Amino acid sequence: MGSPKPPIGNQVRHILIILSIFLLSLTIISCAEKDESTTTATTTTTTTLSAPSTLTATGGTGQVTLDWTSLSGASSYTVYWDNTSGISSSSTAITSVSTDNYTHSGLDHGITNYYKVAAVDSAGTGTLSSEASARTSILLGGSIQGEEIILGGKVTTFAGPPAGTTTSGDTDNATASNARFNQPIGSSSDGTSFYIAEYGNNKIRRINISSGEVTTLAGPPAGTTTSGDTDNATASNARFNRPAGIVTDGTNLYVADWQGNKIRKIVISSGEVTTLAGPPAGTTTSGDTDNATA
């Protein structure tokens, strides 16, 4: 007789135990693989760039020059501006400024503009700087337009009677303090000479800026104040009638001849006087007529 066979129940139990062990092994392996494949989330902290420091603004002719301290990590800068204070990130922006300075040009004259600047990197735009402001230059008449005038606050007499006296006259003199004027009103300069529309004497006077010498450029000779509207190639033969305003382009002088109701032109190099616009010689007709013919 052969060996007795184990009971069927024992065989089933053994099979179930083996299956349980196999399934447990699969579960353990699956969990291990899952643990290995799980990516640990990394929290990235983004640091906002700090505000650029020491922002300064300097006004010029139609422009404002900005300067600030460069910021480490900045790839560029954005300038925010307006002509009213209270600049914010919603103000007009000038982007992609690559250096730590910027010249803002094409501005109106005599206007105060306000600015802030922020650094930019790959994460975005940083904190805005403190506000700075500057006023553009005001243009003056004549060829000194666009030049900076330094006013130190000290007042001196450039030409005319000494302190304590107000003597009028029409005296020309190489010494400015010995020259005399009578109601000088309009003035202009080409940087070399100073020109004066002398209302009371009906003359155009010239002062050499470097020497102070005073001469009569156009109008009646010394000792006379004859008015009129005569044009002449010889300046001393020309006449004016209460000249009040004057400007220069560096080559010519343009005079507002008040009571003559004319605009006169003087060639600086020759002294020739002509009427640029207004009624013809011998007339002083006033009005407001526009015309293609001066």
Structure description:
The protein starts with 7 loop residues before the first helix and ends in a 17-residue tail after the last strand. It is mainly beta and 294 residues long. Strand 1 and strand 2 (63-67) form a beta hairpin. It is rod-shaped and about 150 Å long. The protein has 2 domains: 56-138, Sandwich (Immunoglobulin-like), CATH 2.60.40; 140-289, Thrombin, subunit H (Beta Barrel), CATH 2.40.10. It is 10% helix and 30% strand. The chain has 1 helix and 16 strands. InterPro entries: 6-blade_b-propeller_TolB-like, FN3_dom, FN3_sf, Ig-like_fold. This is Fibronectin type-III domain-containing protein. Residues 215-237, 274-294 are annotated as: Disordered. Residues 215-231 have a biased composition (Low complexity).
Question: What are the key terms here?
Answer:
rod-shaped; Thrombin, subunit H; Fibronectin type-III domain-containing protein; 1 helix
Task: Please render the helix and strand layout as text.
Elements: H1 8-37, E1 56-59, E2 63-67, E3 76-82, E4 92-97, E5 101-105, E6 112-121, E7 124-125, E8 132-135, E9 184-189, E10 193-198, E11 203-208, E12 214-218, E13 243-248, E14 252-257, E15 262-267, E16 273-277
Antiparallel strand pairs: 1-2, 2-5, 3-4, 3-6, 6-7, 6-8, 9-10, 10-11, 11-12, 13-14, 14-15, 15-16
